[in-house]
């Protein structure tokens, strides 16, 4: 038994059956009752493909992320999938890694599955080389594209993100006002979001933005685990670099900074202040608890889905929504 059989037995079109299955109000009550009666008599259970027939909708959204083991990305996927489910949409998840050609392959795979839209989770999908973003713009001609925590200009491309520049700027200024003047910035990504955070630090420190950050002692681009971060900071200290505060681009880096302080018997926050980013659960699990920037991830993800639902329903929705961050003060800062 399939949707064609239901259509034939009920004496209505496939599109009408699909509208009834999807709860579309554009069906008369009499016709709806007739179709539902046939479905009940036949014991028919619609599959995802059948639901899409006649409505040009599979009620399915593709989600792409680089690495679902990343706590930030994993949380985003949870928030997005929860909101999609509440709007009666299923989700297909692809973990793509960071190579552009692999991402393009997965995006085309999701398009071939007739998904209604595609969500790109993480600003790392927005490449500095604009040519590498063309496959996203091409896909947006077919379905809406939503970017979480990143932005890309283009028709039918929507984004919701935190003001990372202002967040880091405010954090550095708060440290300066608390008496810190040798503030180290530690980051692990040169993504869209990563570059905004770096710009916020440079501006707050009155550093010329045209200066190559790789040439600055107090800007450290380091991609390692917590223990490797601890050892890297220890090495900087042994080589004579003095710092009384550390601002990091995510909480994992900040935990490495806490371990550095403990290893070297440095008092937190009396001798060293530390601020993380993302306000993840580990910020409350650390000792001392970590002051961290809350980038409003749940609100960002909820906005992405509400924007998507509006776009799918033909409503006018903003192409870009920016949220303000909040510094959550805990035990690693004096302010």
Write the SSE topology:
Elements: H1 3-10, H2 14-21, H3 29-42, H4 48-52, E1 60-65, H5 71-86, E2 90-95, H6 100-112, E3 117-121, H7 134-139, E4 145-148, E5 157-162, H8 164-177, E6 183-187, H9 192-204, E7 219-221, H10 226-238, E8 245-248, H11 251-263, E9 273-277, H12 282-285, E10 291-294, H13 297-312, E11 320-323, E12 326-328
Parallel strand pairs: 1-2, 1-3, 3-4, 4-5, 5-11, 6-7, 6-8, 8-9, 9-10
Antiparallel strand pairs: 10-12
Helix pairs in contact: 1-2, 1-3, 5-13, 8-9, 10-11
Broad CATH class of the largest domain: Alpha Beta
**CATH homology-level superfamily of the largest domain:** Response regulator
Biggest sheet strand line-up: 2-1-3-4-5-11
Helix content: 40-55%
Give the CA-based shape. Answer: elongated
Q: Total number of helical segments?
A: 13
**Rg, please?**
25 Å
